[in-house]
Amino acid sequence: MSITYEEFLEVFHDAIVTLKALYRLKAKTQDEITRIYKEIKRNLIKMKVFTPSQILSAISCAAIYNNRFLRSYWALFKIIYNKYQPKTLDNLTPLFNELFRLEYELQNKSDISTLLEFHEENTIFRAIMDDDIQAFIAFTEREGFDEN
Q1: Is 76 part of any domain?
Q2: What is the pLDDT of residues 94-134, one digit of tens each?
Q3: Is 17 part of any domain?
Q4: Is residue 142 part of a domain?
């Protein structure tokens, strides 16, 4: 018995939607993060599509490409890690390796907030990351702005 592409998509529809939501995360509140966690738990972990370790790896990867929501990804990562305590964490990005080390292996956790803040407030980089068009325009209209 072989399964067609359409049947495959139908069977794994919820898993696909959940992965899409993970990679396009826009959650800023704890309620939104909890909702995403519940979807991951229901559609990916309980259905045995992915192991918790694989999900943690996917979260660390997704955060690279959507670093505007790095704090949300880190909060989601911690929820899943604390719930399932996987024995191994393979394929984490260097940033998440460092965050993990600071959170779970060291006593001094003050460096975590430094790692989570990519760009300082009121910089053009922050305006780009936050999709703040008004702030970006203000930076480009300043006297002495280098277009190159």
Answers
A1: yes
A2: 999 989 988 887 554 555 565 566 666 778 777 777 788 88
A3: yes
A4: yes
What is the distance of C-alpha 100 from the center of its chain?
A: 14
Give the predicted TM-score (pTM) of the model. Answer: 0.74
Are residues 141 and 94 part of one domain? no
- Per-residue pLDDT tens digits for 9-26: 888 999 999 999 999 999
| DSSP states along the chain | ----HHHHHHHTHHHHHHHHHHHT----SHHHHHHHHHHHIIIIITTTSS-HHHHHHHHHHHHHHTGGGHHHHHHHHHHHHHHH--S---S--HHHHHHHIIIII-S--THHHHHH--S-TTSHHHHHHTT-HHHHHHHHTSTT----
Number of domains within the chain: 2
Same domain, 37 and 93: yes
Determine whether 56 is exposed, middle or buried from the number of CB atoms within 10 Å of its CB (0-12, 13-18, 19+).
buried
Q: Are residues 41 and 13 in the same domain?
A: yes
User: Tokens 């696909």 sit at which residue?
Assistant: 16
Look up residue 79 and give its amino acid.
Answer: I
